[in-house]
C-alpha cells in the first residue's frame, strides 16, 4: 500500500532522515515511536510533501514517486491518497465543522454540495459530532476539534491516514475520546501510520511498530514483539522508560 | 458689527457642495478597489519571493512611502501625459489615447491608487503572514490548489486581521482626496473653494465641507464595524 525507500531529508546541513525504508500493507496499522527530534514528524510530512524530501522514493498504491523529480501532479496524487491528522488539529478557523469536512469533497473531488453535506454529516455522526455541525472550531474543545480533524481526513476516503501525535495537545481527560475514535477508524480496516507517544495505545492498536532514533529506523516488529522482547537495547530502554512513567 | 459667520450662506452652500460628492466618493472607492488589487499582487510577490518582480515591488513601496502624496499627484498628472506622448512619438504606441482629453479625475484616481496600493501592500502581506502555518498545511494536505487555499482559507482569515488597518487607510484616503483640486478636479473641496471665492465667505464653506467630510467618515466607520463583525464572526467564543 505505502512504501518508502531510502528516504533522506536535509534541513540545510542538518541530516534529519538518513535513508528510511519501510512499508505498510493495506489495512495495517503501524505506529512510529521514538524520542523527540528523531524525525518522526518529518517522515510523515515527507510522505505527503508538506516537507520536500531530499531524495528517495515514496510509493502509494503502486504509484511510485521519485522525490527528486516529483512534479506537481505527483505531489497532488500523494496528497489525495493520504489524509493527515495534525497535532494542533489545524481546522480551518473560518469554516464551520461541517464546512471543514465538506471542503475537500466539494473543492477537490468536485462533489455537489448536497451530496458532500450528506457524506460529511454521516462521518461527523460517526465521530460523535452530529450536534456541532454549525459550530466554528473556536467553539469546540480540543477533543472535539481533533475528532473533526479526523472526520476531515476520513471524508476524502484516502488510501492511508497519517496521524502526527493526534493527542499530544489535548488535556489528559480529552485524550480518551480521541483515542476511541482512532481505534474505531482502525477497526474499519483503514491503513494507518501513527506517530504517537501513547505507548499503551500504540501497543493496543498497532499491527506493527517502528522505532526511530536519530533519523534512522532502529528496529521494527509486531507490537507484541517490540513491547515484550525488543532486540535492540535502545528500544528496550525507550519503551521501558516511557512505560514506567 | 459684522457677524462672525454668515449662517445663511453656510447652510445654502451645503447642497451645492454635496453635488460634487460623487467625485470624492468615486475617487476614494475607485482607488480602494484598484489599490486592493495592487496591494494583493505586490504582497503575494513578496511572500512568494518572485525574482525581479520582488525588487520592483519593494522599490515601488519604498518610493511611495518615502515621498509626499502631493508630489505623487503632481508626478502622475504631469508625468503620465509626457510618458504617453513619448511612446506615441518615438514608438508609435498608444496612439488611440489622446492625452489632451484625459480627465483630471483619471489622474487623481491613478495617483491615489498608486499611493494607497503601496500602503495596503504591507498591511496585506503581514495579514497573510499572520495566518497560522497550520492552515496552509492542512489546506495542502487535503489537496486544495494554491488558488483554492488562498481564496477559501487564507484570504478570509487575513481579511479579518487586516480590516481595522484597511479601514483606517481608507478613511485617510477619503480625507486626502481633498488634495485633488490642485490638478483641477472639482471634488467637494474644489467646489467649496469656488463657492467661497464667489461669495467671499471662505470660513463658511470650509466649515460646511469639514462637516461633510466628518459625516462621511462617521458613516464609513460605522460600516467598518459591521464589516469587521461579519469578517470575524468565526472568532467568537464558546456559544454552547
Ligand atoms: N522546518 C524545519 N527546519 C529546520 N529543521 C527542522 C524543521 N523541522 C524539523 N526540523 C529538525 O528536524 C529534526 C527532526 O524533527 P521532527 O519534528 O521530525 O522530530 P520528531 O521526531 O517529530 O520530534 P517530536 O517527538 O518532538 O515531535 C529536529 O532536529 C528538528 O529540529
Ligand atoms: Mg513530531
Automatic annotation (TrEMBL), chain A:
Keywords from UniProt, A to Z, are:
ATP-binding, Cell membrane, Hydrolase, Membrane, Nucleotide-binding, Transport
| EC number per UniProt | 3.6.3.-
The organism's superkingdom is given as Bacteria
Membrane-crossing residue ranges in chain numbering: none
The main place the protein resides is membrane
Family matches, as InterPro entries: AAA+_ATPase (IPR003593), ABC_ATPase_HisP-typ (IPR030679), ABC_transporter-like_ATP-bd (IPR003439), ABC_transporter-like_CS (IPR017871), MetN_ABC_transporter-like (IPR050086), P-loop_NTPase (IPR027417)
- GO cellular component: a single term: plasma membrane
Identify the residues that the record assigns to the ABC transporter domain, covering every copy. Answer: 2-239
State whether keyword Transmembrane helix applies.
no
Q: How does it sit in the membrane?
A: Peripheral membrane protein
Cross-referenced Pfam families = ABC_tran (PF00005)
Q: Which SUPFAM superfamilies match?
A: P-loop containing nucleoside triphosphate hydrolases
Localization terms from the record: Cell membrane
Q: A single Gene Ontology molecular function, please?
A: ABC-type amino acid transporter activity
Q: Does the keyword Glycoprotein apply?
A: no
Q: What is this protein called?
A: L-cystine transport system ATP-binding protein
TrEMBL record, chain B:
Entry's localization field: Cell membrane
Q: Where does it primarily localize? A: membrane
Q: How does it sit in the membrane?
A: Multi-pass membrane protein
Protein family: Belongs to the binding-protein-dependent transport system permease family.
According to its UniProt entry, one GO biological process term is: amino acid transport
The record's listing under NCBIfam families reads: HEQRo_perm_3TM
Q: Which SUPFAM superfamilies match?
A: MetI-like (SSF161098)
In which organism is this protein found? Answer: Neobacillus niacini
Q: Please list the residue ranges annotated as the ABC transmembrane type-1 domain.
A: 21-224
CDD domains per UniProt: TM_PBP2
Q: Which regions span the lipid bilayer?
A: 23-47, 59-81, 101-120, 179-199, 205-227
Name of protein: L-cystine transport system permease protein
Q: Which residues form the signal peptide?
A: none
At the highest ranks, the source species' classification is: Bacteria, Bacillati, Bacillota, Bacilli, Bacillales
Which keywords describe this protein according to UniProt? Amino-acid transport, Cell membrane, Membrane, Transmembrane, Transmembrane helix, Transport
Mind listing the GO molecular function terms for this protein?
A: transmembrane transporter activity
Q: Name one Pfam family in it.
A: BPD_transp_1
Pull one GO CC term from this UniProt entry.
ATP-binding cassette (ABC) transporter complex
Amino acid at each position: 500500500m505505502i512504501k518508502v525507500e531510502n528516504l533522506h531529508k536535509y534541513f540545510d546541513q542538518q541530516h534529519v532522515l538518513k535513508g528510511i525504508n519501510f512499508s505498510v500493507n493495506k489495512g495495517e496499522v503501524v505506529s512510529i515511536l521514538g524520542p523527540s527530534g528523531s524525525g518522526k514528524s518529518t517522515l510523515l510530512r515527507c510522505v505527503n510533501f508538506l516537507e520536500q524530501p531530499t531524495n528517495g522514493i515514496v510509493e502509494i498504491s503502486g504509484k511510485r514517486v521519485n522525490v527528486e523529480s516529483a512534479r506537481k501532479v505527483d505531489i497532488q496524487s500523494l496528497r489525495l491518497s493520504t489524509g493527515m491528522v495534525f497535532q494542533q488539529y489545524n481546522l480551518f478557523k473560518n469554516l464551520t465543522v461541517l464546512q471543514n469536512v465538506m471542503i475537500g469533497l466539494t473543492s477537490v473531488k468536485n462533489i455537489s454540495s448536497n451530496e458532500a453535506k450528506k457524506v460529511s454529516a454521516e462521518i461527523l455522526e460517526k465521530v460523535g459530532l452530529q450536534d456541532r455541525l454549525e459550530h466554528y472550531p473556536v467553539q469546540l474543545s480540543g477533543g472535539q476539534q481533533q475528532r473533526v480533524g479526523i472526520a476531515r481526513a476520513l471524508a476524502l476516503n484516502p488510501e492511508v491516514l497519517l496521524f502526527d501525535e493526534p493527542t499530544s495537545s489535548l488535556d489528559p481527560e480529552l485524550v480518551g475520546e480521541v483515542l476511541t475514535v482512532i481505534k474505531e477508524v482502525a477497526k474499519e480496516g483503514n491503513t494507518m501510520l501513527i506517530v504517537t507517544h501513547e505507548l499503551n495505545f500504540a501497543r493496543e492498536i498497532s499491527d506493527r511498530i517502528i522505532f526511530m532514533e536519530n533519523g534512522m529506523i532502529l528496529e521494527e516488529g509486531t507490537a507484541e514483539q517490540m513491547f515484550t522482547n525488543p532486540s535492540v537495547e535502545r528500544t528496550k530502554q525507550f519503551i521501558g522508560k516511557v512505560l514506567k512513567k | 458689527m459684522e457677524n462672525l459667520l454668515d449662517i445663511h450662506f453656510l447652510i445654502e452652500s451645503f447642497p451645492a457642495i454635496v453635488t460634487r460628492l460623487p467625485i470624492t466618493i468615486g475617487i476614494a472607492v475607485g482607488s480602494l478597489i484598484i489599490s486592493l488589487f495592487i496591494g494583493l499582487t505586490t504582497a503575494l510577490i513578496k511572500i512568494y519571493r518572485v525574482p525581479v518582480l520582488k525588487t520592483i515591488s519593494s522599490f515601488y513601496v519604498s518610493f511611495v512611502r518615502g515621498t509626499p502624496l502631493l508630489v505623487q499627484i503632481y508626478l502622475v498628472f504631469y508625468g503620465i501625459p509626457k510618458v504617453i506622448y513619448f511612446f506615441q512619438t518615438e514608438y508609435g504606441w498608444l496612439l488611440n489615447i489622446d492625452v489632451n482629453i484625459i480627465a483630471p479625475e483619471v489622474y487623481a484616481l491613478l495617483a491615489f491608487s498608486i499611493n494607497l496600493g503601496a500602503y495596503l501592500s504591507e498591511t496585506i502581506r503581514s495579514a497573510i503572514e499572520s495566518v497560522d502555518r497550520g492552515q496552509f498545511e492542512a489546506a495542502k494536505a487535503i489537496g486544495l490548489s494554491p488558488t483554492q487555499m488562498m481564496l477559501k482559507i487564507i484570504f478570509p482569515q487575513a481579511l479579518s486581521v487586516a480590516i481595522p488597518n484597511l479601514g483606517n487607510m481608507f478613511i485617510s484616503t477619503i480625507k486626502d482626496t481633498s488634495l485633488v483640486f490642485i490638478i483641477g478636479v472639482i471634488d467637494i473641496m474644489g467646489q467649496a473653494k469656488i463657492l467661497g471665492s464667489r461669495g467671499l465667505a471662505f470660513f463658511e464653506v470650509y466649515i460646511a465641507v469639514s462637516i461633510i467630510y466628518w459625516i462621511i467618515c462617521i458613516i464609513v466607520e460605522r460600516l467598518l464595524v459591521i464589516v469587521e463583525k461579519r469578517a470575524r464572526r468565526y472568532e467568537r467564543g464558546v456559544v454552547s
